[in-house]
Amino acid sequence: MNDLENAVGQYIVYHDVLKKTNPERILYLAVDEEAYEGIFSEPIGKLMLENQRLNLVAFHKLEEVIIEWIPSVNINK
Question: Per the domain annotation, does 47 fall within a domain?
């Protein structure tokens, strides 16, 4: 849970800075498959995805491939 709180906090800071300095860029929080299947399958993670609080990309660490893109409709406005 602490890792999620820290990651989301950093994401918000970077998102706000990018929105001001490079508004055409879209920021994604990258998480490995283990974190994606862990925290984002729990109620708090599902809630964040349902509320579209962040753009998320999940990747396979060893194969170095993206397994899921989850853009947020709300945050990219």
Answer: yes
Do the beta carbons of residue 33 and residue 59 sit within 8 Å?
Answer: yes
Instruction: Convert the pLDDT of each residue in 5-52 to its tens digit.
Output: 899 899 999 999 999 999 999 999 999 999 999 998 899 888 888 887
- The structural domain count of the chain equals 1
29-32 and 56-60: which strand pairing?
parallel
Q: Which domain holds residue 47?
A: 1-70
